[in-house]
Amino acid sequence: MTERSTFDLFEQHIAAELERFVAPATDPKPASDIAAVAMRPRHLVVHARNVSQPRRLLLLGLAAALLVPAAYIGASNVRPPAPDQAVLVRPSPTVDPRPTAVPSARVASGYVPILVRRTVGPEPGISIFAVRPDGGEVLVRNVPDSIVPRGTLGEWGTVSESGWLALGVEANGGPWPMILIDLADEQAEPWLIDEANLGGIGPRWGPTGLVAANAGGNGGSVVIADPETHATRIVSMRGGLVGGGPSIIWAADGSGIVGSTRNGTYDIVPLDGGDPRPGVAEVFDSRRHFGPGLAELRICEPFTKCPGVANGRLERVELDGSAMTIWQQEGDDRALAASFGSSADEYWLSVDHGNGRQVALIHVLGERQDVVATVNRIADWSGVDAPQMAPDGSMLLVWIDNGAKPAAVIVPLTGAPPTFHTGNFAGFVDSAALAASATGEPGTPAQTMPAVGETYALPSLDELISAELRLNPGRRVLSKASRDGVDGDTGRRAFEVARDHPGGGAQLDCLGPSSVTVTSGSDSITSPCLRAGAYEFTIGASGPITVSASGDTAWRVVIYSQ
Question: pLDDT tens digit string along 325-377?
């Protein structure tokens, strides 16, 4: 059974980026050996788990070994090798590295999304853009890597509504401190916070303008930073943070951080150093993956812990394990991701629609369910997150996992067409916080979505094998089989995977409008094929292997040496 941690997409990308910094670690074992021990299936003949693409085995393996499992949604931990970007409609990947101010009138009034991209050019760094309601991008600030004493600025960040951007610094061997950048004043020197060590746990802004970040020990303590006064304090979390990520969750009033206890309960750890307050009521989670009382959302698909039939329904799960159905799958539309809204019985869903050609954005409020917008899909989107509404209700933003590159779709609620943007979505900012910019030129114009949605695309068998062998060069391919989906071919049939050599380690990758089942003897594994990425499982060393799939779903099966 697959256990999905509560890593959100931002934290997943931190983990993925840090994988390339593991080599300087002092453990004499190869990274692949450490990961193999941490991630080895146990006790089942067929035991599946989601594995990222390319295989981020070490960090996710350590996470699996250290963290509490959770089968709830937020976003998938899966990623294929970087696809061919040539077919995408997107802004130019290069920007002028010179500092450029932007007139506030050219941004917008109200709230605007902030996107962060790596800068290519003679002075590398990151570029920060605001996105107008018409989809046009405006360069807010360029920040070069040279401002930090070592390493490079990561593009994975989170921004406060008042315009403070928190980013990580990536350095070989770590640690990975946090840096705060003031978007209201381009002359302000960024603030490097050495007490922070992001290490796969994303920082979180609280409701009172403070930011919390991991300070080491996998969430054993957090650093609280006040960007206005440049004051910090360390708060011991005693038992740790929340969930399988883990994640930093604030109390609704900003007085403390939600902490776990050794007996499996949760409390509020005050910022002032006082004793923890038992129980959790209202919480503040800017990404809305957690609701009141630490409620979570889960999609009942194969390998989740939903009781009864895995029929694709969305459930709200309370801390005591009780569950309530929020949304029922109808027809072929399948839920991709969901998040809490701003009121007690409000939810947002991204739903696979039109046999994978579109994504429907659904607003659930009590008994009412409305399709707010339908976005034409681009073929190589490997993951789609739940919609996030701007604080002023002017637009929705949908986070896209576009292979190795993050992206976002912005959907104005005025009826204007949606636009597509590459870069990491850091959050929404009140445009008044950008008022210090007074000169300069507007940025990239709006990039519209394709007129017709594209069907799912899956990397080739050779690409997937190459990605696996780059990370685990000692493995050997014992046998393999694949099939590309054919649009409109809904007939389901069985395919046999011929064994070239005996062996018991297999991986299934699939993507398409219906599930794929792999059978070995009396055991089977089924992937819903909603997100690109591998299910890795063990099988008997000999005997037939059968793949059952509809013709419109692409799949790859590879048998590796253990």
Answer: 999 998 889 999 999 998 889 999 999 998 889 999 999 999 999 999 999 99
Cβ–Cβ under 8 Å, residues 253 and 261:
no
Taking Cα atoms as reference points, which of 477, 425, 452, 548 lies closest to residue 129? 425
Burial label, 79 (beta-carbon count in 10 A; 0-12, 13-18, 19+):
buried
> Across the beta sheet with 256-260, what order do the strands follow?
277-278, 266-270, 256-260, 250-251, 283-284
> CA torsion 550→74→301→313, rounded to 10°?
-110
117, 130 contact by CB (below 8 A): no
Given a contact cutoff of 8 angstroms between Cβ atoms, the answer to whether 71 and 4 are in contact is: yes
* Pairing assessment for the beta strands 111-119 and 424-430 based on DSSP bridges: antiparallel
- What does the alpha-carbon distance between residue 219 and residue 221 come to, in Å, rounded to a whole number? 5
pLDDT tens across 514-525, in order?
899 999 887 788
pTM of the model: 0.77
Maximum Cα–Cα distance across the chain: 70
As given in the structure block, the two tokens for residue 372 are 């707010």
Judge whether 125 and 146 are in contact, CB under 8 Å.
yes
Q: CB count, 10 Å around CB of 526? A: 19
What phi and psi, each to the nearest 5 degrees, are found at residue 13? -70, -35
Question: pLDDT of 420-469, one tens digit each?
Answer: 998 999 999 998 888 544 334 455 666 778 889 988 888 899 999 998 89
Residue ranges of domains in the chain: 9-83+456-560
